[in-house]
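Sequence, structure tokens reproduced for absentees:
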Amino acid sequence: MNLAAPAPPPAPAPDVDPARLAEAFRLFNQVSEELSTAYGALEKQVERLTTELAAANAETQRLREQAERNARLAAMGEMAAQLAHQLRTPLAAALLYAGNLETPDLPEASRITIARKTVERLKHLERLIQDMLLFARGEVLGREAFALAELLAELGQTFEPLARSRGARFEVVTPPPGLTLTGNRKALAGALTNLLENALHAVAERTDGCIALAVEEDEASIVFRVSDNGRGMPAEVVARLFEPFFTTRAEGTGLGLAIARGVARAHGGGIEVASAPGQGSTFRLSVARSANEATVTMEQNG
């Protein structure tokens, strides 16, 4: 009978040098204290940097607000200078015509003609000032629900005779039945009238001029499309179309499109334009459907 060999006796525990153990604890405590001191210093540095960052952010915000305020003041100054320039010519013409009316031996027919020209210049001044006030001040847009078919029919009745008198054809594409919008009908009608008048000016040199007004819709917006087969515009003109006082028309105020863009933005939308020389132009004024749920305010942004 074989018996298992007895287990070997355990190895003797190594001798522990108390001095070395004490040195190890001392070094551990020293490192711990150094880490604690470094951590405290790091906390203070982070706190200081956080305070400095907050102060820097506050200063950046202050400088940004000051820059925006200076930009607004500069824009207002430029606008005032442009307005003075725009007012000078028609005012000088009106004064000249009015001065001619004082001529005692002026024939009656000439007096009537000069009086009519004087009134025309004064009406131009009035329209320029009204557009300027609307652009600079904006207005609160009240809301009302209306059918888009009614709006387009109203525009057709107003604009079609004018287009016909200028030898142009005006087409209105009837919107889908029952399509309604809640917004400021008067403001939208005014914006669309500005687009139609620009289109009529663009087709003035054509014998087959055509202007079309239509409505498109999707889940997010309603889009009014005004297109023409006029002379079109080069890219450098398109880039400046919505600048206040920029106009290619001798009788224009240069504010119509800027106001139209303000109306579109007030309704949560915007204006896009596609145009090229000899290929006509198409303006798309969009109105967000979400704008139906809240009162909107016109904002004029550069």
